[in-house]
UniProtKB/TrEMBL annotation, chains A, B:
Residues 2-59 form the HTH lysR-type domain. Belongs to the LysR transcriptional regulatory family. It comes from the Bacteria. Keywords: Activator, DNA-binding, Transcription, Transcription regulation. The keyword Cell membrane does not apply. This is Transcriptional regulator, LysR family. SUPFAM superfamilies: Periplasmic binding protein-like II (SSF53850), Winged helix' DNA-binding domain (SSF46785). PANTHER family: HYDROGEN PEROXIDE-INDUCIBLE GENES ACTIVATOR, TRANSCRIPTIONAL DUAL REGULATOR HCAR-RELATED. It comes from Colwellia psychrerythraea. Signal peptide: none annotated. It holds the Pfam family HTH_1. GO terms for molecular function: DNA binding; DNA-binding transcription factor activity. GO terms for cellular component: protein-DNA complex.
Length: 299, 299
DNA sequence: CTTAATCATAGTTAAAGCCTATCAATTAAT
DNA sequence: ATTAATTGATAGGCTTTAACTATGATTAAG
């Protein structure tokens, strides 16, 4: 295998037409350059340089190969400068995965600061259900997930970002809408509207509801939080909504969002990465930025 | 300095996503590849590979650098295949220098066989006076000269090709035109037309003439053999012409070309190269070809 | 719980690259 | 003409490094 150093020696000889000077320009001794060049010639099986006492010149073969050598060295230089540019840990593309019940309500609160804090990171946003996101994270298609933490993620590395309370969304006219102090126990025997299977919010919300003695309304399953919200607004039932979704879009005339007393049902939003993920500095910056952005909103 | 082998390891990892298989494809042991790759990462200061037990993947930086690495390796491959192509000693460009009093009369006799014998050599022909040719040979602008040998060429390497007799060119009406047996002594007291200074033929021809007791006609100097020939044809005098020039273009009605008896004046045509010239096999083939071509013509 | 797979580590060896010192050949100068 | 300087090649020794084998640690799967 050709060595890049040898190509440097060759181009140096071409430039200086003088072994001593060429060696100096390569910061090696003259015998070193002389020897390496001879080895290269032997390896290629052809003479590259005509040696004369007073006068060194390249053979036609040497001339052609110097051209090729320059191309190789240029490519190598590009490799190195590319590596140098990549050295900035706070630059490059970053694929962020979020779940549908979080993305549209969270992103408006965090992207501004993320883009300010990490101006050289290009964020690509991917919205998918937890299972898909984990798969893609594992495959390397995604770099970072932001979603509710589940035990099945223990093989990954995760950072707690914030706890998002779940609120009770009811029609204004509902008996629970005007209750002074609301607790999970109040849900007993209520029928709860839910999202479709696959949304982790459904499992979490229904977990709380079941333990409170409420039941799932199996007559309909919403495919998104917004349809769910519309169903509540049109009086078809009540449901648990994440605080960010409740806060953002009030639909205030028709829906009442009730805060629970302690113990408040929550979902713990975490940032998840592969263990050994290469851009930890970047991850830490994201964690800090999101926590900061959320500290003002979740009180 | 980056090493090409490391780039191969990197691309192999990208291809196989598996250290063992990648190592196998590079014909090294897995620890070797593992270690070299780690060194490369350390050297660049950035992580290229995410290592997991079950799953190896490139970091975004690694992904980009694999692209660069491929370009470098491709350039290196081109270098090597170019060297391979140059391995054929009977291929490539060859710059041949000749003097004006020889080129137009010799080339028609030798080029056909040269092109047949060395089909992959591209001959570039350069016509100049001896002094210029020697300078250009020394500078490497020319590879091979074909010209009359002079002692000042002893620092070069030379191969005798053939002896070209000099003939006496006279008008048909000249007293020497019809002489049965012609010798140099017959030139005594004749005035000889000559070429301009700088043409080595002038010096050689006049050397013979002077020692025979002839004189130079200083009233005019021809800039080429053809003008010289025309001057003879128009009766302005006599001159010595090289046999090849006499043979080719007879101008037979008006000029008589006389052969000298022994000692025949000649110029010894040699092939001259730099000592240590790299393409000796090619040179030997040229020498053989020219000698063969000329053996039929100079008898 | 054990087995297999996979990447990292440790220790060793062989080769390669580099250095200093010196030689040989040539040119330039006294 | 002899000496001094230049220049590329050679010799011998040192250091680095790339390679190997053997082994360890961790995880996934049977």
């Amino acid at each position: 295998m050709i060595k890049l150093r040898d190509l440097e020696y060759l181009t140096a000889i071409d430039k200086h037409k003088h072994f001593g000077k060429a060696a100096q320009s390569c910061f090696v001794s003259q015998p070193t350059l002389s020897g390496q060049l001879m080895k290269l010639e032997e390896q290629l099986g052809l003479q590259l340089v005509e040696r004369h006492r007073r006068n060194v010149m390249l053979t036609p073969a040497g001339d052609q190969l110097v051209e090729e050598a320059r191309k190789v060295l240029q490519a190598a230089g590009q490799f190195e400068s590319c590596a140098k540019a990549l050295l900035d840990p706070f630059a490059g593309d970053l694929h962020l995965g979020l779940i549908p019940t979080l993305a549209p309500y969270l992103l408006p609160h965090i992207m501004a600061d993320l883009n300010t804090t990490l101006p050289n990171i290009n964020f690509f946003l991917h919205e998918n259900q937890t299972k898909v996101l984990l798969q893609q994270l594992d495959e390397g298609k995604l770099d970072v997930l932001i979603l509710p933490y589940l035990v099945e993620m223990e093989k990954f590395e995760s950072y707690q970002l914030f706890d998002e309370p779940l609120m009770l969304a009811t029609p204004k006219s509902h008996r629970l809408a005007n209750k002074k102090s609301l607790s999970l126990a109040d849900l007993q025997d209520e029928k709860i509207l839910t999202l479709a299977d696959g949304h982790c919010l459904k499992d979490q919300a229904m977990g709380y509801c079941f333990s409170a003695g409420a039941k799932e309304d199996i007559s309909f399953q919403a495919t998104s939080l917004e349809t769910l919200r519309h169903m509540v607004a049109s009086g078809m039932g009540i449901t648990l909504l994440p605080a960010l979704a409740a806060q953002g879009n009030l639909a205030s005339d028709t829906i009442h969002y009730g805060k629970f007393q302690a113990p408040v049902p929550i979902r713990g939003i975490s940032l998840v990465i592969r263990p050994n993920y290469s851009r930890m500095q970047c991850v830490r910056a994201i964690v800090a930025s999101v926590r900061k952005s959320l500290s003002d909103i979740i009180s």
